[in-house]
Amino acid sequence: MTAVLLVGEGREYLREPGARLETDLGVLDVPEDVASGAVLETHLGTEFVVRDLRGPDLFHHFERTGAPMLPRDVGLVMGHTGVAAGDRVLDAGTGTGVLAAALGRVGASVVSYERDPEFADVARENMTLAGVGEGSAGGGVEVRTGDVLDDAAALGEFDLLTLDTEDAPAVVEHAPELLVPGGFVAVYSPFVESAREVVETLDSVGLDAETYETIQREMDFDERGTRPSTAGVGHTGYLIFARN
User: Fold this and answer.
1) Which one of 88, 90, 132, 167 is least enclosed by Cβ atoms within 10 Å?
2) Counting beta carbons within 10 angstroms of the beta carbon of residue 210, is it exposed (0 to 12), middle (13 to 18) or buried (19 or more)?
């Protein structure tokens, strides 16, 4: 059963078909056969529009176990690696699971490692919410509890290796064996020191790396003029890419 978004009065609520929404705006029961675009009313007459979940919605509505990867970083990983339906992906450092879910939703088969058992349980629930839990048609995400390095020798080859973990330098040492010819590795690092270590390790195993700092600024438009927003932090981290 796939959850839907209920949007109204500047608010968003996530509910499954057949569930009840109770707020200060009123109470409504979500029909079992609810469809995207439907307009539902609470008993107080407040209207909510039904929307299907899309990738950016998952970022906002997943249960979080830490800072999830931002949509802009997810987009860069997907764009630089060309991940596609049918690809096999090895992911380490599942965390909240935003990246793993995005990869699963394009039809890739993802094996994701998370060392914290509680985080792994939350990630599995998030994958179910995203519609890419184990057994999903057209791909799916298997979240394993453990250290990817313990299993690296027996995992086989993948089209893509994605890492968001402190021991990324140790993992990328195995990239040539973990990747098919032409396969990609993509590493997210919040700190420049660890990014440098990843690049040096990739170089030591014969893979040339490209590194990018991800910065994004919103624009403000008002009667005085137009300029980049002064609110928020534009920098998120560093992305390192290499190809086998």
Assistant:
1) 167
2) exposed
